[in-house]
Amino acid sequence: MRRLSDLAPGGRGTVRAVRTDDEMGRRLRELGLIRGAAVECLMRAPWGDPAAYRICGAVIALRHEDAGRVELWR
Q1: C-beta separation of 4 from 25 below 8 A
Q2: What is the pTM of this model?
Q3: DSSP 31
Q4: Taking the CA atoms of the chain, what radius of gyration do you get in angstroms?
Q5: Torsion over CA of 12, 14, 50 and 18, rounded to 10 degrees?
Q6: pLDDT 10s digit of each residue in the chain, 74 long?
């Protein structure tokens, strides 16, 4: 299984699911991380956390822990 947190800068994927039902899961879906959405990892902080992702034309930063909740298609 591939997760959003696995993408290296320049890597792309398509969202399969957000694997949490808590408040953060709701927030991730509000940011556009829904089934079928295209995502791209733009860059990571020098120490790896957080990372910047392009989602639905917007750029957002996510902690590694939160990006790990997003499952991508292989």
Answers
A1: no
A2: 0.89
A3: T
A4: 11
A5: -170
A6: 899 999 999 999 999 999 988 899 999 999 999 999 999 999 999 987 999 999 989 999 999 999 999 999 97
